[in-house]
């Protein structure tokens, strides 16, 4: 590598020199954390586990601003620093506010920030879209890459979902929480269940029923916009979680979206629902899988290796080499950064990461496996 970390050459070492360094473990390119809410880092250890989605949303409402601003900013900085040292080179991060922007601008870790909106009441749409424009202007001024993005089908009026998704697609990228819970599925397919009850008890509107499920509901919402009414929907779309997706939904996405990616966040899914996405099905359908840590409101740590360990634990037939690809190249490709990141190749600057304490014979992670950045 040259001094700035660009790889000049790869190959086999024919002669040791004084500068040759040896490591015990595997060397991989820098990670891409494809789903995080770094601005929720102050919520570490605060939330109750296994709350289900309605319970989780209630906790977010109550706890979101439970710590003072300086403490929240300190937590963001600490976690980004830790992630970088553990080998994360890039991140797709969700922001509802500008609290993380300045820290991101000065971090060596590349971030594309998804400026997320939600709002269940149709008459609030113009106001929310204006706030989104202001947040986008702030991100542009500070000099970080960002795109508008919708939250999920169950927290938005159909018009807001349609408008904010169109704004994201115009920008080239969206990150969307998809089929994260069985409650979401029940709300969209049947109009009932804990989410429906929660909204009704607060006097809020609920989405129209769609018997084909949440993913079809999302595609139909995008198609409300004339620009995206007919053809295949362009841009890079990250569908996040997919814990309760099924074959029919995967087919809908593959047929409608030009470039769908499927982010999985296993430890967050276990935290909230004690559930995991149908990984074998996603693999069989050829889905481009990426890995995210989600936030410290639904995870006890932001660690790519810990996510990979849980995948290996629950899906032992998936080879480690494939999991590494999900954690690196696929995320880089979603971010449009595959020319710089994601593999160890001449000309790229992916970051070099060592995973130590692994079972080299069987190429498996061990409970004590850890990662650290070498370059
Ligand atoms: Zn999320």
Task: Explain the layout of strands and helices.
Blueprint: E1 26-29, E2 31-36, H1 52-63, H2 69-85, E3 88-95, H3 101-106, E4 110-117, H4 125-142, E5 145-150, H5 158-171, E6 173-178, H6 182-190, H7 194-201, H8 214-223, E7 233-241, H9 247-256, E8 257-264, H10 266-273, H11 279-284, E9 288-291, H12 304-314, H13 320-327, H14 329-334, E10 352-359, E11 364-373
Helix pairs in contact: 4-5, 5-8, 8-9, 12-13
The chain binds zinc ion (ZN).
Residues 35, 37, 94, 177, 240, 294 line the site of zinc ion.
What does this entry show, briefly?
This protein has 375 residues and is of the alpha/beta class. 38% of the residues lie in helices and 21% in strands. It has 14 helices and 11 strands.
Q: Can you tell me about this structure?
A:
The structure is a single chain. By secondary structure, the protein is an alpha/beta fold. It has one domain (30-373): Metal-dependent hydrolases (TIM Barrel, Alpha-Beta Barrel), CATH 3.20.20.140. The protein has 14 helices and eleven strands. The chain has helices spanning 52-63, 69-85, 101-106, 125-142, 158-171, 182-190, 194-201, 214-223, 247-256, 266-273, 279-284, 304-314, 320-327, 329-334; strands spanning 26-29, 31-36, 88-95, 110-117, 145-150, 173-178, 233-241, 257-264, 288-291, 352-359, 364-373. The protein has a four-stranded parallel beta sheet. β10 and β11 form a beta hairpin. α5 (158-171) packs across α8. The structure holds zinc ion.
